[in-house]
Amino acid sequence: MQMLQHRTSVCRTTRRVQMLASSNSSSAKKVIGSQRGSSPAASGCKKPRLTPTAAGAYLTSVNSPRRMGATKAAAADANGSSCEYDAVVIGGGSAGVRAARTAAENGARVALVELPFAFLSSAEKGGVGGTCVLRGCVPKKLLLFATEFKTEIESSKGFGWTNASAGELDWSAFMSAKREELQRINKGYKEGLVNAGVELLEGRGVVKGPHEVEVDGRSINTRNIVIATGGQPSRIPIPGAEHAIISDQLLELESMPKVVTLIGGGYIGMEFAGMFARLGCEVHVVARQELPLAPRFDQEVCEFFAEQCTASAGIHMHMGCNPTEIVRESDGTLTVKLEPKEKKDSGDKESGKADKPSSQGNGSSGSGCSEIRGNQQVVLAVGRAAKTKGLGLEEVGVEMGKKGSVKVDEHSRTNIPSIWAVGDVTSRIALTPVAIMEGQDVGLSIATGQDVTPNYDAVPSACFSWPYVATVGLTEGEAASKELSFEVYSHSFSPLRAHLAARASPDKPLQRCLVKMLCEPGGGKLLGLHMVGEEAPEIIQGFALALKLGTTKQQVDSLIGIHPTSAEEVLGLKGPTRSYRDGKQQDGKQEEAAGKGQGKGKAEESPVKASHAG
Using CA atoms, how far apart are residues 284 and 425, in angstroms rounded to an integer? Predict the structure, then answer.
């Protein structure tokens, strides 16, 4: 895309910010104050409003799935011509940074407000990069890499490395390396903003009106305000909850816990459970739902995953249980007291039923609900809530949603036309790539004068647990609830490397993987693809494009696979395992398959794909 030329005033601001890049924040604030003057409409603020030129022409000429219309926000108020900025973005996470950079690179005058950097966030601390970079995706993946070395070295004994030993993880050394890497990325994000022409304001931003933001007492006038403050870990109101930590703190512990209980069976809980299990820790997972990762993932996938968690990973799963109290014992350890989930909760959305009630799974609901003793740490992984407290949104009339989230329309605009919101703060799809997409679209909307609508079709996602789980498209339950006609192909297998790796631990069951595909009847258009096992996220990422482009199963089956890989298991799936017409499972050979992927209708099992044998 041909980039719009920055106005002369923006270029001057950019040069001034670049000269201040190595200065401390207080110096930067002085420059901001001198630019602003003593009144909101200081000299230099009266600028002509943006016009949709090169970027706008590009957007209207491309055959894009995103729908656009005339924007209201680029010229939303009568005072727009006296604003200092075209946009002020509050929040420097993935969504906010992308919104700011996109708008600035397309000619808008943009400022981004973010709290000073710290590894642990608080009301006073944050940092450019946000949750994903500083306290979520990136440090979590670094810890995952560290833990995988141990299991890889242990598995190598089955391949002949008889004297291989993983030793012990130097937790302090890992933490030091992790912190250095996060500081490097944080610096890179700041430099990227400066190079794009974004003015970085360090402090706490509060919305004072449709076109006014206050940063540590300084008033700023802007045509548009973008809320991108993300989310924060939720807590539960039970006695002793103060003894538990949240995921942010887990990534900043001074020592590795040998016994840990994670309360919550979603992404966060299962990812950390897998990591600590790899390190040889005793790991317990407590969750109200009957299956881990439900209802976000397909039920058959969740059932298969639960089996692998206990059989291969050795994680103690306490499903269908409510934590009632956390007690600190005299020896300093923590006891988590549990009770079975109440029967009346069985039908609510939080019960974790992915599709239909399961006829099997990880024990009956409420089994193992007594107490878990000897914990060195208890981690609350019960979801996240929007981080909007103290932003002033309700005071200026912004309509709010559940758990403090910001309500937006299909263009990410709130009920106040000049105020937008993107990322986890809106409680739509809480994934970093989705937040980036939303930020980019809002940045384009502001800079070009045309609304850009985010496209949520075929959004892939993955849980970096043990084993990995990845998905794109519809689950079996979702397809049935939409009353679609479709076929289900399901196949489980042991990856090639698992057979020799198992020789190192003959007492453990053989590692298995699952591939599941949904398509229209007759091997038609793909509707959903799900996988459990090694390389699942990388494999699903590639097939997500096929699903988004409307590829059929017949076309997938016509591909020549790369051998030997787990990815080739997606090609030529036999079946179907079962089929549906208008959302109802069909009678016949699959009649015994009760409840979407259970009993005799479960995935076809094979010890290893035939092609691997020769």
Answer: 30
CA distance 439 to 227: 10
**Of 256, 282, 234, 261, nearest to 378 (Cα)?**
261
* Nearest CA-CA partner of 250 in 265, 233, 229, 236: 233
DSSP for residue 425: G
pTM of the entire predicted model: 0.83
Give catalytic status of residue 563 as yes or no: yes
**170-209 residues labelled b (16+ CB within 10 A) or e (exposed):** eeeebbeebeeebeeebeebbeebbebbbbbbbbbbbbbb
243, 284, 491, 563: the active-site residue = 563
108, 326, 545, 570 from 526: Cα distances, Å? 41, 46, 11, 12
Cα separation of 517 and 576, whole Å? 9
Q: What is the arrangement of strands in the sheet containing 321-328, beginning at the earlier edge strand?
A: 321-328, 334-340, 371-375
| CA pair distance 558, 572, nearest whole angstrom | 8
Q: Which two tokens stand for residue 542?
A: 């590639």
Q: Quick: pLDDT tens for 557-585.
A: 999 999 999 999 999 999 999 999 999 99
- 352-391 pLDDT, tens per residue? 444 432 333 333 345 578 999 999 999 999 999 999 999 9
